[in-house]
Design brief:
This protein is of the alpha+beta class. The protein contains ten helices and eight strands. The strands form two sheets. A six-stranded antiparallel beta sheet has the order 5-4-3-8-7-6, with helices on both faces. Strands 1-2 form a two-stranded antiparallel sheet. The radius of gyration is 24 Å and the shape is elongated.
């Protein structure tokens, strides 16, 4: 083999690599277990080619054959690479450029929160230029999950039993006359958030302050964080709320995509 051959792999070799990658990428859509005939049909390959690719991937641990069904599934090596990729993801680092862009676009302050027990923990914040120092939520600060834009978006990942347990543990303390402070109101609010995919929070943490939040999902479809825009409630008329909601939802979707989330 010449040095030129070494620098430029053969077309056939590259095609085999691409086919093997196509095969691995088919599992999320057709898996968790796929038969040889099914995967050959799905990828437009003949069975002999599909078998050779599967055998090579099996030899390296990327796929394995189920002893009972004799179908193929992802192997330990695929899991290890996926786990390694997830370990490299830092939601704060990933979200920061989107938060900054949201602030530049809207001139509202942006927040990123994650769930920490019964609280929402603020892990990033980008302030708008006009901002006055009236916000209580700083980086490292906490808010209960039942009030505020990002916290209530985080709460939408809980089912009814978990919500009842949360309400019982915390007692749903009220900070303003607008704070959710009963279980029926909490269940109704979460159902609304789950339906719309966003939260409009007005004066339920601090009077005079409004926020719009949306959840962030990881590759498994779990809520792992939430972002929000927040500002003076006087600025949040119906038109403004609609505009800001679109910005928050769009950027939450972008961050979720960076974390591997694919909407069904």
């Amino acid at each position: 083999m010449t040095s030129n051959d070494q620098e430029h792999p053969s077309v056939n070799g590259a095609q085999s690599v691409l086919r093997a990658l196509d095969l691995l990428e088919a599992f999320p859509s057709y898996g968790p277990e796929i038969g040889l005939t099914s995967i050959a049909t799905a990828l437009g390959l003949n069975k002999a080619t599909a078998y050779r690719l599967l055998a090579a991937l099996e030899m390296r641990g990327f796929v394995e054959r189920c002893p009972e069904s004799r179908k193929y599934r992802l192997g330990v090596r695929s899991f290890e690479l996926g786990a390694y990729f997830q370990s490299q993801l830092d939601i704060r680092r990933l979200a920061f450029p989107f938060l900054r862009e949201m602030v530049e676009q809207t001139q509202e302050s942006a927040f990123l929160c994650i769930r920490e027990g019964d609280d929402a923990l603020c892990v990033e914040r980008v302030e708008a230029e006009y901002q006055v120092n009236i916000f209580t939520l700083r980086v490292g600060g906490r808010e209960p999950l039942h009030c505020g834009g990002a916290p209530r978006a985080l709460l939408s990942g809980l089912d009814e039993q978990e919500l009842k347990a949360y309400a019982q543990r915390t007692g749903l303390p009220a900070f303003t006359p607008y704070t959710i402070n009963s279980l029926p109101a909490l269940l109704k609010d979460v159902a609304n958030t789950q339906k719309k995919g966003t939260v409009v929070s007005k004066e339920d943490v601090v009077e005079g302050i409004a926020a719009i939040g949306a959840p962030i999902y990881d590759y498994r479809g779990n809520i792992v964080g939430a972002i929000s825009l927040s500002g003076l409630v006087a600025r949040y008329n119906r038109k403004r709320v609609k505009e800001l909601t679109e910005v928050v939802v769009a950027n939450a979707a972008k961050i979720s995509s960076q974390l591997g989330y694919r909407e069904a």
